[in-house]
User: Fold this.
Amino acid sequence: MNQHRTEIDLPESLFGLDELALDMRLISSHRADRVWHRVNPELWAASRNPWAVLKSIGAPELAALGADEAFTEQVRDLVDDRQRRNSDPFWFPQSKAANTLALVAYFSMEFGLSEALPIYAGGLGVLAGDHMKAATDLGVPVVGVGLLYQQGYFRQALDSQGNQHELYPFSDPSEIPVRRLRGADGAWIRIPLEFPGRTVYLRAWEVNVGRLSLYLLDSNDPANDPSDRGITAQLYEADSAVRWEQEMALGFGGWRLLRELGRYPDVCHLNEGHAAFAVLERARWIALEHEVPFDVALTVARAGTVFTTHTPVAAAFDRFDPSFVVSYLSPFAAEMQVSIEDILRLGRADPGDHSEPFNMAYLAIRGASRINGVSRLHGEVSRELFGDLFPRCPIEEVPVGHVTNGVHVPSWDSPAADEVWTNAELRRQWQGVPTPIVDWMEKIPAAELWRMRNRNRERFVLWSRQRLARQFTVAGAGPDRIDEAQRIFDPNILTLGFARRFTEYKRTALLLHDPDRLARILTNADRPVQIAVAGKAHPADGFGKALIQRWYEFSQREDVRSRVAFIADYDLLPAEQLVNGVDVWVNTPRRPWEASGTSGMKVLVNGGLNVSELDGWWAEAYAPQVGWAIGDGREHDDTAQWDAEEADGLYRLLENEIVPMFYARDENGVPDEWMRRVRESMATLTPQFSSERMIREYVENLYAPASFAYRTRLADNCRIAADVQRWRDMIENYWGEVTFGTVHVDPDDKGYAFRILVSLGAIGPEAVQVQLFASAAGQGGPERILMERGDEVVRGTYSYHCRTDGSRPPRDYTPRVIPFHPDASFPLEANRICWYQH
Ligand SMILES: *Cc1c(COP(=O)(O)O)cnc(C)c1O
Assistant:
């Protein structure tokens, strides 16, 4: 494969500059920033696209740069640095996980790596981008799989009334940092997909992220029908047929591409259910190569699959009309010698309900062995959401855990914060080398941290002025308005930031509950405050658009317009500027709707503080010494009344605590109480909510055990998988024969002795466990006491016994029979439970 050469003819002194331009890991490097700024400052500022910047200049300019010693030295430093970074083993190769884990395929509908590669809409994509960047930093073998959208997600423009307009600029593959993939024979790789009545070809691309690759597919191949060439044009197509086809391209196409490239992942990570078809395609390969039935192959694939769910509401799962399954997947079912009903049931809660839509999250659950939500609270919410798939199962045992999200710290630090962390020699932390962050933070003088805060704020103010002036110019504002924009904000006053998707649950207008009260806070003569707001509303969300307009109108009020700005077209660059600059990040979702939220984590490294609803990540991060909480940490039904109370709480926090604390200065002009919180938040929260911590958790707790289980099941031509599958079939077919006799409880010297008869019918005693189960009492999980098998009293009927320690009364315990297999997981792979009826 000839991917590592570009067509750019570089002078020798600039060798490697093209590789720098294509590396999405470097996009967030402040040093690389300076290089691209030097090559073409206008285009760099407008596009943040190093590849386009490099291609924008001609041979004479390249030659001039090549003769500029200061510049070539910067380039050489970066090239050397990159080489070191990509060859250093860092964390993973020295971890225990490296003994089993060979390669993770990370499938995601979006990847937010850089504005130069617009294939993301928001939080999910940015998380995927940060996942890749942290994986390369830690040396974890990951390959990303996604789609290349020609138009990506929409870009937002605001007119002079504050109406949102959606724009879909076209990205030309020759101008974005992607390379077309070629096969061993030098020909472009094309992946065929069988759609009803036709074959659709997918083109394949590679994106470089440090030492890792992200592969992308798109359908804009000249061989395709014109109607198929646009399948991958836009992200989150409203048309469900296109959405289905995109998900087939991602899952089936993505796995096929990996095989075409000779990559054999042992773990497949589904970042949200959109990618769940990858499991089916993976099972197909296993079935064909090992000549095993489809259900055995699926049992192998399942062991090596991790599924991360991201939504706290069932309505957000992707669901499709069953007719799609029938028309698109019948050839697949036929090849696998299963009925289409067998495929349909993988996506249904109730396999017998023929009208139930096909749910991609359910398919992902049926195809995974490890499932997680994205914060502790979201784990709990997800266990409720997926409870339907595990009837009779106590909620604590619904097999969904959590890995709290984190952010790629080096991507989100400001130049000033970078200096502080670098001087303190703490940056190795982000490569998995533990550093004494808490000790160092103790030693940094408050005045130095305060200087960093001031630099951050000032840089943000200067950036906002330019950005707003351009925004108003584009919206057709008059010269007075543009002039005002160039003077908006003040680098010395308390700066709040607030940016997110404008949608009902985010309650983006909570601060506007009483606009006059907010205006009084902002315009207080002694202790003024300013606020920057940004965010897009989904094109079909009229409610969200109206909220944008309310903020816009508020920002135009005569009395506050120098203190409030709505920054249009929220994206990675505005996000970076905001989280670098603001003193306080405000987040007001309606609990428990924010699965995790990551934007508040991005302010941590920069010394910003959070004031947020106790939802998502903040529910586990909050402590009084690191920030402020809104709400009471519970859910509420009467939303209007409760919103009013929370708005009042937020105003009071600002009026009585946040603003006074920011302006309470010591003799050197430093807000010492404020800086104590900044220090605490930087020291304790930054590492905890970094993607470095997140990746280590995924590797150690999910990827490595999944890889081990996958290899175990695959060995000996899927011997163990076949055994697990036989066991599952037996459980399904004969579970109805399991019955209890009467339970006998006798007090003994320490506690109670339990005895019971259990008839297992055709199910052998090795295939089950009999337990006493008690729900959690207070802290900790439920209690399960294994009952020991005694004699077979009649054929198929056994006596079981155990003791309890007497700490709880006997009525707390209920005997139950559950399926058991040493290599399988309960209740995920056999969700039967027989409870003793008192
Ligand atoms: C971090 C980020 C998000 C995620 O925002 P949350 O509201 O915290 O989920 C969305 N969009 C962009 C551009 C981001 O950088």
About this structure: The mean pLDDT is 95. The chain is about 40% helix and 15% strand. The longest strand covers residues 198-209. The chain has four domains: 12-85, 91-405+699-715, 430-688, 738-835.
